[in-house]
Each structure stands twice: as C-alpha cells, then as structure tokens.
C-alpha cells in the first residue's frame, strides 16, 4: 500500500467512525431501557419516542385478530355437496379464498375450525388441487416433502392414496429448530388416528428422511407431490427454485406438483436471501415457471392478486404467538389469525405454484 496524506486521513476517519460506533453500542442499552439503575423512569428523547411502541404493536395486532374472528363468525353455514371446484391457478392466499366454500370444505374434512389464517389456506389449496385433478382416490400415489406433523399424509391415506411422507433427517443441523419445537416429522407424528386406523396407515404410508436439495433418484412415478411452506427453508432463493424445477422429476407423465411458500408481494427490489427463511418475489415465480415450461411442463396461470378485502390489508407484526409468554399464549393463541405478516420486516403472504408433467 502506498502511504499518502490522503490515505492517512482516510485511516483516521475510519478509526474515528469505529470508535463512534462502539461508543453508541455501549450507550444504546442505557438509552433504550424503560427504567434506570434505580428503577425510575428512564427519561430521554429516545425512550420518549419508543416506550409505548410495543404496546402500540399489540394494540394493532389484536384489533386485526378480532377482525379475523368477527369475519369468520359471520360466514354462512357451509352448504352440502362439497368438494367445490375452483379455478386452478398458481396464486396468493386471500380473504376471498378463505371465505369460499372450497377452503371451508377442507377445514371441515380435516376436522379443524375454519379460521381466516394463511395456514388453513395452504392445507386447503393443496388438497383442492389434488382432488380437482382426480388424484384423491384409491390407487394414486403421492409424495409429500417436508411434511413435519401436517395431517395430509393420514388424510390422503384415508381416501385410499398411497403416500410417501418425508422430512429432513433429525441429525441434519438444518432440522434443529424443527426438532426443538416438536414440529419435525416421524412415522408416529405423521399418523392421525382421527382419519384411519394404524394398520391401514402402515399399509399405505411410508416415511423417509429426505433432503429436498438432493431428492433420491428412487423416488419416482408418483401421481402427485406437494410441500407446504417448506422450500423457502432450503438456504437460498436459488435452492428453492432448483427444488421446484426438480420436484416434477418424481412424477409420472400427467402428474401434478403443488407447492406453497412465502411471497414478498410489496417489494420487487429488496428481499431476504441466503438465510434460513428466504422470501420469493414475482421474478422468482416467473423463473420457476420458465424452467418448468422448458422441461415441457404445464404451469397453472400465475395470479399475483393479494386481495383487497379488510383482512387482506392487515399485515401482522412481531411478536408472533411462538414468542409470547406462556400466559399470553394460553389466553390469546387461538385468536392469532392472519393472512399476511412481516418476515424480517418484509410483508409476505402465502403463494402456491402448480405444475403438471407432460
């Protein structure tokens, strides 16, 4: 390096900036604390602005939750005659979908309360496509990726489908959080006795540990495959796109692939990548569709409409239910329903993409 007065000045500036940052980091905890060392209110310009911030967040959250409960309670009785058809699209979750008979039918089938929550939409969306494409019947074979404790393997087996349910091996460090939160899949957790007896389950459902970034070549000739909010956890956006591209390889001709994930619907420039949870944008779904079509697959039309009803405009924020205290969760968890939320500060909702192997 050539030393000059300009270089020396730059070094001094960098050193001064570093000291300022270190000093600020030391002062911030004191500035942000609600009380001082003696338990008295910590009065400064920063706490004057921020001290009510958490209460404001909770106020906003719970008005949104009450709205979701009120809207769900006002729905008319579900008519007989389901399942009900819908326009098969690759699409975002919306309030209109959750108020529609097709989603409400699948909540009834699964024996869960129909609440206006995006996770209900995901379960209903996958089941709807499996049923509407003629695959919910005896003799059909399905492969579920990242199943965790979801009810779909048992429910589909109760309809006569042979199912391979998969999840990441518990020894894989990427599975640590799912194992710790008891959301990780295994044969016993996959079985749901409310749908079928254990003997029928064991005859129709097999469980395997599978890395979604390296799907074994022996998993082939399925009539359908699915995943629910799983491929955003593969470490990067590119890994997720690659999974969608390769997932159709497990299908026989005419087989259908249905996957849901996180949709960064408000920001086409900035998103989260190279992280445990990545957020896909329109351009990424377009790239998935391009690659699938290049392989000769048919992709259901991409519909990015995120809805315009009241709950479509409610974007939930942290703290979410899994971060609440025990008392909060005990009293409030059942009402914590939303269609949209922020992930690392970015508004997201669910998006499903459907492809048919030709």
Secondary structure blueprint with pairings:
Layout: H1 5-32, H2 45-50, H3 53-73, E1 90-92, H4 95-99, H5 101-110, H6 118-132, E2 141-145, H7 152-158, E3 162-167, H8 176-180, H9 187-190, H10 198-204, E4 205-209, E5 222-228, H11 237-247, E6 251-264, H12 282-294, E7 298-299, E8 302-303, E9 315-316, H13 326-332, E10 340-343, E11 346-356
Parallel strand pairs: 1-8, 2-3, 2-5, 3-4, 5-6, 9-10
Antiparallel strand pairs: 1-11, 6-11, 7-11, 10-11
Helix pairs in contact: 5-6, 11-12
Can you characterise this structure?
The protein is of the alpha/beta class and 358 residues long. It has two domains: 46 residues, no CATH class; 241 residues, no CATH class. It is 39% helix and 17% strand. The chain contains 13 helices and eleven strands. Strands 1, 2, 3, 4, 5, 6, 7, 8, 9, 10 and 11 form an eleven-stranded mixed β-sheet that branches. α7 links the parallel β2 and β3. α5 packs across α6 and α11 packs parallel to α12. The protein is globular. The model has no long low-confidence stretch (mean pLDDT 91).
């Amino acid at each position: 390096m050539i030393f000059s007065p300009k270089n020396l000045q730059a070094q001094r500036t960098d050193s001064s900036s570093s000291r300022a940052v270190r000093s600020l980091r030391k002062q911030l905890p004191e500035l942000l604390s609600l009380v001082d060392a003696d338990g008295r209110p910590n009065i400064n310009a920063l706490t004057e602005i921020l001290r009510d911030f958490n209460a404001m967040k909770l106020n906003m959250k719970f008005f949104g939750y009450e709205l979701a409960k009120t809207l769900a309670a006002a729905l008319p009785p579900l008519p007989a005659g389901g399942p009900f058809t819908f326009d098969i699209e690759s699409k975002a979750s919306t309030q209109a979908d959750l108020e529609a008979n097709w989603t409400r039918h699948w909540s009834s089938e699964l024996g869960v309360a129909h609440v206006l929550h995006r996770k209900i939409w995901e379960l209903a969306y996958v089941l709807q496509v499996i049923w509407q494409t003629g695959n919910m019947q005896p003799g059909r074979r399905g492969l579920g990726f990242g199943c965790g404790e979801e009810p779909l393997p048992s429910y589909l087996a109760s309809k006569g489908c042979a199912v391979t349910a998969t999840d990441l091996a518990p020894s894989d460090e990427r599975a640590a959080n799912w194992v710790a939160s008891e959301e990780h899949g295994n044969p016993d957790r996959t079985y749901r006795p409310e749908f079928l007896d254990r003997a029928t389950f064991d005859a129709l459902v097999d469980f395997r540990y599978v890395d979604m970034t390296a799907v074994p070549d022996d998993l082939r000739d399925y009539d359908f495959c699915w995943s629910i909010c799983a491929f955003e956890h593969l470490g990067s956006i590119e890994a997720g796109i690659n999974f969608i591209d390769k997932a159709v390889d497990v299908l026989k001709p005419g087989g259908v692939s249905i996957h849901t994930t996180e949709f960064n619907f408000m920001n086409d420039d900035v998103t989260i990548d190279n992280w445990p949870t990545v957020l896909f944008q329109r351009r990424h779904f377009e790239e998935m569709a391009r690659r699938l079509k290049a392989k000769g697959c048919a992709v259901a039309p991409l519909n990015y409409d995120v809805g315009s009803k009241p709950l479509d405009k409610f974007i939930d924020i942290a703290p979410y239910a899994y971060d609440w205290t025990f008392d909060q969760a005990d009293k409030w968890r059942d009402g914590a329903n939303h269609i949209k939320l922020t992930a690392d500060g970015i508004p997201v909702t669910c998006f499903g993409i459907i492809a048919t192997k030709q």
